[in-house]
Write a structure and sequence with these properties.
112 residues; alpha+beta; 4 strands; 52% helix
Amino acid sequence: MNTLFALLLLGGDANASNATATLLFYGLMFIIILWFFIISPQRRREKAQKDFLGTLKKGDKVVTIGGIHGKIAQINEGTVLIQVDPNTKLKIQKDGISIEASQQLNAPEKSA
């Protein structure tokens, strides 16, 4: 590894430039793979979660990330009041509502 840096700093020869091109190629491939398999899907999930939280309304059935099922009784700026029982309401952060579990809960049932 030290010889690679020495060759790069001192001007090197054809083998050093070939090694540099190979390093750049692998670095670029790593960044592309990182983007397509980690960063891009995460951004899509965050956007879908934000859109889902923006469309919530009173009466929607939701599931929190902790697994609590309930119906929205009131929506405030950053919090939601969820009715889990006729006499029990919980105040939670909007970010605590799970998009995946809530969509499964509200999905129409399939007849077999």
